[in-house]
Amino acid sequence: MFDVLWKLKWFFKENWLRYTTAVVLLFIANILEIIPPWLIGVAIDAIAQEQLTAELMWQYIAVLAVALVLAYLINFVWQYQLFGGAYVIERQLRSSLMGHFLKMTPTFYEKNRTGDLMARATNDLKAISETAGFGILTLVDSTLYMATIIIAMGMLVSWELTFLAMIPLPILAIIVQMLGKKIHVRYMEAQEAFGDMNDSVLESVGGVRVIRAYVQERASEQQFADMTDDVYEKNMAVERIDALFAPVTKVLTSISYMIGLGYGAFLVAEGVMSLGDLVAFNVYLGMIVWPMFAIGELINILQRGNASLDRVNETLDYPEDVTDPKEPAKTGRPERIGFKDFSFTYPQSSSINLQGINLSMNSGQTLGIVGKTGSGKSTFVKQLMREYPTGQGSILMNGIELKKLTKDQLRSWVGYVPQDHVLFSRTIRENILFGKSDASEEELIDALRLSYFEKDLALLPSGLDTLVGEKGVALSGGQKQRISIARALIKDPEILILDDSLSAVDAKTEARIIENIQAERSGKTTIITTHRLSAVKHADWIVVLDDGKIIEEGTHDDLLKANGWYNEQFLRQQIEEV
Amino acid sequence: MGTGKRLVQYAMNFKSVLISGLVMLAIAVAADLAAPLIAKEIIDNHIAVSDGTVNFEPIAYLLALFFALAIVTAIFRYWQSILLQKGANRIIRKMRNDVYEHTQTLPIRYFDNLPAGKVVARITNDTEAIRDLFVTVLSQFATSFMYMGGIYIALFYLDWKMAAMTLVLIPLLYVWMLIYRKYAARYNHIVREKVSEMNAMINESIQGMTIIQAFRREHQMKDEFVELNDEHYKYQKKLLVLEGAASYNLVGVLRSMTFILFVWYFGGASMSGNTVVTVGVLYAFIDYIIRLFNPINGIVNQFGRLEQALVAAERVFRLLDQSGEPVVDKKIARYQGNVRFEKVWFAYKEKEYVLKDISFEAKQGETVALVGHTGSGKSSIMNLLFRFYDVSEGGITIDGINVNDMPRQSVREHMGIVLQDPYLFSGTIESNVTLGDERITRQMVIDALAAVGGERVLNHLPKGIDEPVVEKGSTLSSGQRQLVSFARALAFDPAILILDEATSNIDTETEEIIQHAMDVLKKGRTTFIIAHRLSTIKNADRILVLEKGEIAEAGSHEELMKLGGTYFQMYKIQSGMSQTQSVG
Q1: Residues in chain B within 8 Å Cβ distance of A518
Q2: What is the reported pLDDT for A569?
Q3: How many of the other CB atoms lie within 10 Å of CB of B153?
Q4: Do A373 and B208 touch (CB under 8 A)?
Q5: Shortest Cα distance from A75 to chain B (angstroms)?
Q6: How far apart are the C-alpha atoms of B254 and A10, rounded to whole Å?
Q7: 3-state SS of A422-478?
Q8: ipTM of the complex
Q9: Residue A369's beta-bridge partner residues?
């Protein structure tokens, strides 16, 4: 159970001064708490024995007042330090998580659902933060504070009585420990249920148009109600254990009180201790209730913190699927790109997704990739982008293995326009500048012109400063695609990759954009995947993929002559269009 | 109505559970608070009186009673805690379901203007914060107040003057609570806001990760995130200062002051010799005073949470207050599908019309194609037809009935759509076709998939139509996703079919399969197609050419070709491009 603190060792080391200050001051504050009961015991004795004088009384009051002020100040400082630490770790881990997400490639996001990752960045972080703050408080209170009170009881009242009254404590500790174990398991389940619920809501909000279009509101509500039922059941399972802590503690502390009163009465009768001592002793016993509860709380918090830390660490420890080489090779601008006997299979896939690919192209050339849905066009591009670990055989840049280059170097050359247009909830300007943050106004205007977006801009309410809704909902698919293209073009990349990214623009716009790209990108490489052959017929080389294999390749004219799939498709598109 | 009141209203739905919980609590509190009185009895009557000899028998009886009370307390506290937790969790379950149900009634506009992450935060995270509130309010606050009430009764019973003096605490606490709340509320608001912004950012970054990485913007995103995170931290710390100075700590001060008052009052009384105070009374008094501050601490410790929960509740209620249109369950008979647009004007934002004076008609079984450059208003027509949005002026009728006179659900009941972004839910291929609708049988799913050429999808998948689909169907290619979404449209057997740029992601071969399926399907159905390739719509009964929200040309392919206008130009470009290529 205490592993969580061990696992957080690095953090406590980093913040040793903060935590030392907090714990030391907390300890002093605890000692200050011992004073009032003792003083009151003395005062009661004085009252009972009718020995109280005005002077004595004011002395007591003065001591109490000084203790009050000191306690207030010290309490403030340790609280600030200790809970401040909780916020520090929360901030730190949150940034680390985000940093890690930014390093992860698609494989990771296929394995982990977004909602679940979100839950880790929110609820789990909260639980860890609680461990580093309130958890430490309960730890100190259930150990140091408890010891302080026990010593006070022993020294100021009676060791014998203290020892006897303490007997039930270890039993409590054992029961609390056992309950804690159970809670751990159930809490994990509850968290998971919450994560699932989060996921399902995220999906149905994202797919709200589909749900509405098919009038599936009720089905969707039912599905959500099942989720909330599950969350409810899991939460109640936690509570059924949680609710045991207080009663168990109550019964066991009562035994302590019984011993205190019963044996205390005997000791008073014996004349070993005074009535004031007995009162003070019982006050101390009362004070020890909190540290005993603190054990329960501590277990609780540590369990929760442990479960959450494991989940967060699991994410943070997930190694990059696509790593940079330890000693990266360096090369200048990519003059030659080559594929040699290249094959690739997705981690979860049972069939081979790319097979025996041999290709070579020089800078300045345009490569067209065509083929049926699922033939491997996107896989080809994703391999070039290193979104997945590289397959067998080799991809060569200037004769150097792609995996010997850093991803950063590779990506510095590439301008990528994906199939699914991804835009961020920012202005159109910011979205385009995503391609090149220090681009000048001229470059921006140029990119807009090349991607044929100027006219649309005039129709948008705030022009370039129009806010794109999340995932660009308010814009049409074609507009989104062209913003994506502008984003890639503004970079003026050595290698431009259009992954079926003209599908939502009409033929005229497509033609204009292709023309622009041809005209502006002399000497630079362009790779286009598409279904529409019109988008690649100008290409220097066209490959036809089928089931991950190149079944035909050549120039447009070569392929027409070859009388194969390409020719057939081309004729079909011809016939359809004429 | 205030947030607090509405929360109470929610709680009232579960009156019986909550009340029985509170009754249990009352019994537990009474049993618990009787303990100091027993101690007093032991001290005053069996220890203090004795002169060296103590009679242990009555003490033993009293101690047995003491223990019995502890057992009673324990049992009732357990059940109280279970019942109140049950109540709190049920309230939240209901609230979640209500919020979710309400989001189903909100106009699409709401979702278009608000990032999905924020909507989700309302439904899950904010309600989770409110769960905290109910759990603490019900368990902690109820317990605390009941204890305080019981303790005051006991104090008055012991010594009414001293008890009366300690009553000063109550207005003090109240005023302090007001002041504290005022400041805490503000900081909490900011803290929560930042959390929600950070979550939205994480969510969006995950969605757009490939782009962030492709453009090497990891650092920029991280910096922006860190900035938010720091801002969040800054306000957390401000809140901490406030809490350190004015919460738990201040309770300690109040307790010490009560002790001072205690010494002064009983010390003074003893010195004046007017009243005889027994040690037992002093003991009980001290015990009660200490117990009095435990519940206060309990309350104060939860203030932060309470604030957060209230802020969260405010936001949840704001969402619930968004006026929506209730989902109508009434099924209507299948309409024929005669669609008419009459002088339709439409603007997403006031006065910025994206559709201007659109009139056309589509009779049952006809196919109407919409052509135009991006942004010409094609998608808006679909949005109106589905009543995702409503017309600004003019009207749309189906079979002569104005769609605005029909519930939205009825309008959509016999419509099918294939959206630009084929959206898949996690589940299986089958569940993505049926969408959980029980009317769609497994056989219908298989047939629909077959009709759209879905064997292409299934052949690659080991489990066929039971193949699991992950979030957004990201393991399927977009063409495959399109096929699934196509099968979905077919399975629902709509009277009106809408294909919104649907064929653009499908290669020619696949498209041919679909074209064939569509020809079969179109029979008896009114079909609207938005496509960029004019080839797909050549056989349409009517082609509407849209330009900047207006119908520039309308007619059949042949008519429009003869007209020699925009359509002719567009067609020439498309076929011309192919022509030059085949020549050269």
Answers
A1: none
A2: 82
A3: 14
A4: no
A5: 6
A6: 39
A7: CCCCCEHHHHHHCCCCCCCHHHHHHHHHHCCCHHHHHHCCCHHHCECCHHHCCCCHH
A8: 0.84
A9: A529, A543
In the chain, the amino acid numbered B563 is L
Contacts of B58 in chain A (CB under 8 A): none
The shortest CB-CB distance from B259 to any of A36, A50, A206 is to A36
Note whether A61 contacts B101, CB cutoff 8 Å. Answer: no
State the pTM of this model: 0.73
Query: Could you read off the pLDDT of B427-464 as tens digits, one per residue?
Result: 888 888 888 888 888 898 888 888 777 776 677 777 88
Chain A environment of B492 (Cβ under 8 Å): 214
Interface test with A, best of B260, B374, B498, B506 (most A CBs within 10 A): B374
Q: Are strands B526-530 and B496-500 parallel, antiparallel or unpaired?
A: parallel
Burial A501-531 (b: 16+ CB within 10 A, else e): bbbbbbbbbbbbbbebbeeebeebbbbbbbb
CA atoms of B573 and B576, how far apart (whole Å): 5
A-chain residue closest to B50, CA distance:
A269
Distance in Å, alpha carbon of A177 to nearest chain B alpha carbon: 18
pLDDT in tens, A162-205: 999 988 877 887 787 788 778 878 988 998 899 889 888 988 88
The CA distance from B61 to the nearest CA of chain A, in Å, is 11
CA–CA separation, B516 and B188 (whole Å): 60
The HSE-up count of residue A374 (CA atoms within 13 Å, CB side) is 21
Determine the residue type at A86. A
Q: Collect all residues of chain B within an 8 Å Cβ-Cβ radius of residue A218.
A: 327, 329
Which residues have a Cβ under 8 Å from the Cβ of A518 and sit 6 or more positions away?
A366, A538
List chain A residues with pLDDT less than 70.
1, 293, 469-474, 574-578
Q: Determine, for residues A208 and B108 on separate chains, whether the beta-carbon distance falls below 8 Å.
A: yes
| Chain B partners within 8 Å of A352 (Cβ) | none
Residues B528 and B382: beta-carbon distance below 8 Å: yes
Q: Which residues of A105-126 are buried (b: 16+ CB within 10 A; e: fewer)?
A: bbbbbeebbbbbbbbbbbbbbb
Q: List, in sequence order, every residue forming a beta bridge with A401; answer none if it has no partner.
A: A396
CB atoms within 10 A of CB B49: 11
